[in-house]
Amino acid sequence: MEALLGGRFNYPEVGATAELSGSTDSDSAVPSHYDIDRYSFLLGRGRDLFERARTGLIAWRQFEIPWLEFHGSGPAASQQAVATIVPLAGLWFVNPCRVVYAHLEAGQDSAAYAYGTLQGHPESGEERFSVSFEPAVQEVRYEITAFSRPARLFSKVGYPLVRRLQRRFAASSAKALAQAAVVGSRL
After folding, report:
1. Is the dihedral of CA 60, 119, 143, 41 positive or negative?
2. Which of 14, 143, 6, 151 is nearest to 82 (CA)?
3. What are residue 38's phi and psi, to 5 degrees?
4. pTM listed for this prediction
5. How far is residue 60's CA from residue 145's CA, in Å, rounded to a whole number?
6. How do beta strands 110-117 and 35-45 pair?
7. Least crowded by CB within 10 Å, which of 1, 89, 107, 137?
8. Residue ranges per domain, the chain?
9. Domain spanning 2-10+34-186: CATH superfamily
10. For 85-124, what is each residue's pLDDT tens digit?
């Protein structure tokens, strides 16, 4: 696994999720041969919930998903290498990534980082994870913004299954982060 985590990015648009906002007007930052996904989940309300969700995001708690194995250590940081392992149809898929940027400063109303796929990942692209707090309405949101395309023959052949798995990951990730934020309130 160490060899995979030391690999190069397998796409040229490194950092492009920073340009993708909530609107489709910003999609020109990414070439049209990528699928662009945006997911937004309301976690709840209140500054305390935001702080717990922010802490969970930095600690990779959104990856505490029963059907996925996360490999990485320490808090999210720029250039950190991580990987997920996903079982599918009797096979195990290793998905190496590296954090391309991290905006995690304390005292802000948002926190975000993105990781990009490395050589050996079945997809090529980038995924941004963020939590935000809207003071006017006290809402806490978890958002995933991503662009991707198949990078390997099996992900091209299994494209519909890969897309379904990406949607499943988004929902499972939101549930995991929400649970982490609620559990944090009980400590």
Report:
1. negative
2. 6
3. -135, 125
4. 0.89
5. 16
6. unpaired
7. 107
8. 2-10+34-186
9. START domain (3.30.530.20)
10. 998 778 888 999 999 999 999 889 999 999 999 999 999 9
